[in-house]
Amino acid sequence: MTSTTGTAPLTASMVLSAADRLIDAFRSTDTDAYFSCFHPEASFLFHTEPGLLPDRAAYRALWSRWVDAGWRVVSCESDDRHVTIVGSTGVFSHTVRTTTEVDGIRESTVERESIVLTRVGDELLAVHEHLSDAAEVEA
């Protein structure tokens, strides 16, 4: 993780850098790099799952099941990006277009995502992620 200097004011650039690190790790299906972007107590609310994943360990267990089944990310593009900063917390929202593959079968999705990041020492870590189906949002 890149140092964000814990005493410097949080900036949009810092939030975007942390979000890009997370997205790049996801795009690479790099489990360790991806989950290092999240606080251990981070929560996750995905429209594809029946309920809240209450912490990083729960999400990582789900991710591991996907990967063990042959799942991988083929591409992940982020646009319509927006950052809101409140004190030492940043909210990053965007439209994310993702293509994944399992056993040669590809699936593409368009979703809206919000990621809440907060300063933990000299790092910005995600503490909540919410993913919605863009078609549901537009309806």
Protein model, in words:
The chain is 28% helix and 47% strand. The protein has a five-stranded mixed β-sheet. It has helices spanning 12-27, 31-35, 56-68, 134-138, and strands at residues 38-46, 72-86, 89-102, 105-120, 123-133. The protein has 139 residues and is of the alpha+beta class. It has one domain (12-138): Nuclear Transport Factor 2, Chain: A.
Instruction: Tell the overall outline.
Output: globular
At the fold tier of CATH, the topology name is Nuclear Transport Factor 2, Chain: A
Q: What does the largest sheet look like?
A: 5 strands, mixed
Number of strands: 5
Structural class: alpha+beta
Main β-sheet, spatial strand arrangement: 1-5-4-3-2
Number of helices: 4
Radius of gyration: 15 Å
Give the class-level CATH name.
Alpha Beta
Architecture in CATH?
Roll
Overall pLDDT: 93
Question: What portion of residues belong to β-strands?
Answer: over 45%
How many individual domains? 1
Estimate the helix proportion, in percent. 25-40%
N-to-C order of helices and strands: HHEHEEEEH
First-residue to last-residue Cα separation? 38 Å
Which segments are poorly predicted (pLDDT under 50) over 5 or more consecutive residues?
Answer: none
Keywords: Isomerase
Protein name: Ketosteroid isomerase-like protein
InterPro entries: NTF2-like_dom_sf, SnoaL-like
Domain SnoaL-like: 15-133
